[in-house]
Design goal:
The protein is an alpha+beta fold and about 140 residues long. It contains five helices and six strands, in the order ααβααβββββα. The longest helix has 13 residues. The chain binds zinc ion (ZN) (3 copies).
């Protein structure tokens, strides 16, 4: 596992460091977590790593394309290590739970604009909103 992350880092010319490996591992095991959760998970293993260092790692990994940052309207930014497949997300309006939704087309932009006004369109931001099974069950019970 670790060697996978090492080769990912080397492929984008980032130095292999323990905090970078720890952030990638945390995101592999816990997709769509916010910065605070990344910090808690990484510091559980590496207590000496500062908050600022973890912010910097997230920024560097996002800039390098190893990590994807998503920010549904009204929610805090979340991070995931599943990149490069143009998948979408379904977000619960009640609790903010997020799940992956495969893109039916697979590449951006997967919706063709009815009018492009001369723009070269390279992305359509698709977010599905609804109620997750847990919140739907709670609602039915009350
Ligand atoms: Zn919910
Ligand atoms: Zn995702
Ligand atoms: Zn799509």
């Amino acid at each position: 596992m670790t060697s996978d992350f090492e080769s990912q880092l080397r492929a984008v010319s980032l130095r292999v460091t323990r905090p970078r490996l720890a952030v990638l591992a945390a995101l592999r095991d816990n997709p769509h977590i916010d910065t605070q959760t990344v910090i808690e998970l990484v510091r559980a293993d590496l207590p000496a790593v500062s908050h600022q260092a973890i912010y910097d790692v997230l920024q560097a990994l996002t800039d390098a394309g190893l990590v994807r940052r998503i920010q549904p309207a009204g929610a805090t930014a979340r991070y995931e290590s599943r990149v490069g497949d143009n998948h979408h997300h379904v977000v619960c309006r009640s609790c903010g739970a997020i799940a992956d939704v495969e893109c039916a087309v697979g590449h951006a932009p997967c919706l063709t604009a009815s009018v492009d006004h001369g723009f070269v369109v390279d992305e359509a931001e698709v977010v599905y909103w609804g109620t997750c099974p847990d919140c739907a069950a709670t609602r039915t019970a009350t």
